[in-house]
Predict the structure of GatB Yqey domain-containing protein.
Amino acid sequence: MSLLDSLNNDLKTAMKAHDKETLSTVRMLKAAVTNEQIKVGHTLTSDEEVSVLSRELKQRKDSVDEFTSADRTDLVPALEKEIEIVERYLPEQLSEDDVKSIVEETIRQVGATSKADFGKVMGAVMPKLKGQADGKIVNSVVKSLLS
């Protein structure tokens, strides 16, 4: 079952259940996936679908940070609910220990020895962890291992 099929089924379920939060979030995800399909001109691969979902998740997490720093905590619960809904469609996230072991392996593979190799390591490790780990976590693990 493709992501769009899954989103369509969940859209119908949310409509029947009168679940407005889920309905609006699923509509937004469906629109993002459809727009990406139009942009690239073909049906999305599973990697491309994960990219779209990751981008949507990151936007919401960044918004939570912005609202929190701007003292608009009244808007945070709705965004946290959206984050929870978006995460349902993403692959299971790796633990920090799993990320650390993958980063250590990648550092050995590329022969990185110092902070100057940060970009090389990130470029090699992010495709391996696409959709499975937050970029901020990967960034901090790479920095800590290279220092």
Summary: The domain at 96-146 is CATH 1.10.10.410 (Arc Repressor Mutant, subunit A). The radius of gyration is 18 Å.
